[in-house]
């Protein structure tokens, strides 16, 4: 499903009226009606105590339309307007007049919110229609007090388009924001509903189509999408292991024995053909007993047990053999090893996945990435990408998508910005928001599994962008699968690795289960 930023919605709006003659008023009527419809789907409207908290913009207008529809279903609706009535938009004003003529109780809250607070506590449902995509500065004063009162009401909260106070594009909370049980968003979901902390405030998201033409909802200019499964290439009968990718993993050290195992073995468990692990010779016997299907290349070590620079030529030979190279998991930050990584990055003429300490190696030397011709996939979490670019985590959080689009273009790389709802960016500026995964995955080793799965998706024959985003989807799906089997605290890299085959089978055989679990519901 496409995801629309504020600028995208404004373009859709413009086209809706100029190209299709679909007026704002029609869109608002459908929007408000869809809010009422959602509420009627879980509660009998007659006698239902509803409080609508409306701003003076069109978000408020939607709330007033919902008030009218619910009242006409017999609900007991109280409306509170917050804001300068001099500035009320035309459409909100029209809908305010309608409900006043219907005799609905409407109160303009200027300063004292005690009446409103009382009503909020008595309400069965509160409709949050203060701000939508028009939020353009931190919330303060009376608005902030009203939002606090809504959050303190203990009533069920339905937010109109976006929880008021959440930035629709970035998911940042602008001072204070409504914590909704449901959000009914119009036309397409906004990034701020899918990126934390906004995603936390949205509650269950329903996407109301409100009669936008399909061409607008699927417009190629919409660069952000939810990360939906791609068709996995089938494993044809007349094939051999080389047809599923020959992957070289340059990973591990005496200190980190799990990282090379999780990445090199996950490659095989996610369908890869031939996994070759070049690692510190000391740990090969141990790893061999844990993953005998992996082929090992014992490497010379530094005194601290990391991979020594002396292996450079041998590693370049191995890279010639491979279809895919993954470098970084568990290498340590031993200076000699980082120097080896830096020298290898521009010389490896194959698709390269750089993760963990491999990313540390190129921090501050990004031209090594830029001058690569073969595809590059970087898999940093927030801390790593901050180190990579020298931009603070706080700054990045202000606009993750904008930051990622710029970085992917600058580095001509595919970048996986890992975290809750991982983002995958492509050099052409596309962004995919991943909806699989859970906090149980926030555990050492989890990212190493992802490296192997990315290599496997490439081995299966997906193109680089599809392979990267499908791997993120599969990886999170594996994390969810383990959490459902073992409980969220028991999600470990080993358990995620073990369930990879079943996850792929699920996606091959029952993709509809995926959509049922992870797709945003439409209204
Ligand atoms: N587009 C569509 O397709 C459809 C859109 N529809 C609906 O319209 C909504 C957008 O409406 P909107 O543009 O009138 O802005 P909205 O979000 O109501 O904000 C109102 C005003 O608040 C102000 N303000 C901002 N921040 C503030 C702050 N912190 N503290 C105090 N005030 C603040 C700011 O005015 P300012 O003060 O800057 O003059 C702003 O103009 C959209 O979310 C959806 O619900 C639907 O009808 C269906 C179709
Ligand atoms: N709160 C969370 N919700 C969902 N997924 C998460 C969360 N925290 C981390 N993850 C996922 O877990 C993995 C953590 O990887 P990473 O940070 O590289 O750990 P490590 O490097 O220790 O393996 C990433 O794929 C990330 O998307
Ligand atoms: K709202």
From TrEMBL:
It comes from the Archaea. Binds 1 potassium ion per subunit. CDD domains: YXKO-related. GO terms for molecular function: ADP-dependent NAD(P)H-hydrate dehydratase activity; ATP binding; metal ion binding; NAD(P)HX epimerase activity. (6S)-NADPHX binds at residues 58-62, 132-138, 143, 161, 259, 330, 381, 448. InterPro entries: CARKD (IPR000631), Nnr (IPR030677), Ribokinase-like (IPR029056), YjeF_N_dom (IPR004443), YjeF_N_dom_sf (IPR036652). K(+) binds at residues 59, 128, 164. Its cofactor is K(+); Mg(2+). PROSITE patterns: YJEF_C_3, YJEF_N. It catalyses: (6S)-NADHX + ADP = AMP + phosphate + NADH + H(+); (6S)-NADPHX + ADP = AMP + phosphate + NADPH + H(+); (6R)-NADPHX = (6S)-NADPHX; (6R)-NADHX = (6S)-NADHX. AMP binds at residues 418-422, 447. Keywords: ATP-binding, Isomerase, Lyase, Metal-binding, Multifunctional enzyme, NAD, NADP, Nucleotide-binding, Potassium. GO terms for biological process: metabolite repair; nicotinamide nucleotide metabolic process. Its EC number is 4.2.1.136, 5.1.99.6. Residues 9-218 form the YjeF N-terminal domain. Residues 224-507 form the YjeF C-terminal domain. Homotetramer. Catalyzes the dehydration of the S-form of NAD(P)HX at the expense of ADP, which is converted to AMP. Together with NAD(P)HX epimerase, which catalyzes the epimerization of the S- and R-forms, the enzyme allows the repair of both epimers of NAD(P)HX, a damaged form of NAD(P)H that is a result of enzymatic or heat-dependent hydration. NCBIfam families: yjeF_cterm, yjeF_nterm. In the N-terminal section; belongs to the NnrE/AIBP family. Belongs to the NnrE/AIBP family. This is Bifunctional NAD(P)H-hydrate repair enzyme.
């Amino acid at each position: 499903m496409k995801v629309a930023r504020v600028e995208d919605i404004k373009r859709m709006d413009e086209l809706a009226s100029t190209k299709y003659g679909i007026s704002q008023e029609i869109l608002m009527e459908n929007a408000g009606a869809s809010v009422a419809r959602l509420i009627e789907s879980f509660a009998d409207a007659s006698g239902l105590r509803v409080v609508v908290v409306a701003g003076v913009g069109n978000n408020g207008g939607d709330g007033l339309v919902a008030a009218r529809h619910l009242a006409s279903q017999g609900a007991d609706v109280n409306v509170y307007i917050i804001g300068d009535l001099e500035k009320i938009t035309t459409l909100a004003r029209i809908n305010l007049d309608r409900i006043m003529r219907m005799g609905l109780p409407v109160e303009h809250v200027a300063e004292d919110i005690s009446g409103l607070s009382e009503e909020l506590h008595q309400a069965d449902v509160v409709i949050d229609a203060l701000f939508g995509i028009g939020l353009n500065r931190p919330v303060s004063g009376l608005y902030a007090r009203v939002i606090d009162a809504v959050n303190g009401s203990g009533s069920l909260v339905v937010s109109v388009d976006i929880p008021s106070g959440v930035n629709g594009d970035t998911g940042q909370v602008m001072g204070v924001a409504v914590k909704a049980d449901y959000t009914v968003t119009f036309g397409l979901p906004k990034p701020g509903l899918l990126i934390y902390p906004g995603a936390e405030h949205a509650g269950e998201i329903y996407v109301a189509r409100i009669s936008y033409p399909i061409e607008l909802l699927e417009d190629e200019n919409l660069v952000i999408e939810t990360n939906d499964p791609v068709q996995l290439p089938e494993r044809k009968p007349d094939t051999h292991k080389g047809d599923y990718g020959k992957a070289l993993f340059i990973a591990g050290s005496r200190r980190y024995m799990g990282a090379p195992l999780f990445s090199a073995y996950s490659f095989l468990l996610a369908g890869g053909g031939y996994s070759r692990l070049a690692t510190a010779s000391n740990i090969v016997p141990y790893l061999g007993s844990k993953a005998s299907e992996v082929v090992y290349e014992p490497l010379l070590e530094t005194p601290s047990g990391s991979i020594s620079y002396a292996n450079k030529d041998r590693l370049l030979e191995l890279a010639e053999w491979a279809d895919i190279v993954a470098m970084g998991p568990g290498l340590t930050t031993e200076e000699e090893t980082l120097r080896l990584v830096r020298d290898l990055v521009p010389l490896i003429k194959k698709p390269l996945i750089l993760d963990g300490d491999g990313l540390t190696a190129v921090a501050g030397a990004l031209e090594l990435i830029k001058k690569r011709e073969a595809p590059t996939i970087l898999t940093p979490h927030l801390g790593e990408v901050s180190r990579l670019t020298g931009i603070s985590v706080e700054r990045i959080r202000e606009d993750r998508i904008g930051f990622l689009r710029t970085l992917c273009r600058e580095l001509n790389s595919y970048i996986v910005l890992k975290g809750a709802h991982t983002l995958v960016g492509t050099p052409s500026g596309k962004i995919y928001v991943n909806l699989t995964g859970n906090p149980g995955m926030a555990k050492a080793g989890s990212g190493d599994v992802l490296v192997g799965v990315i290599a496997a998706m490439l081995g299966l024959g997906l193109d680089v962008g599809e392979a990267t985003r499908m791997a993120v989807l599969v990886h999170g799906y594996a994390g969810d699968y383990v959490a459902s089997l073992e409980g969220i605290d028991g999600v470990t890299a080993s358990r995620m690795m073990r369930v990879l085959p079943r996850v792929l089978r699920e996606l091959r055989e029952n993709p509809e289960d995926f959509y049922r679990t992870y797709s945003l519901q439409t209204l």
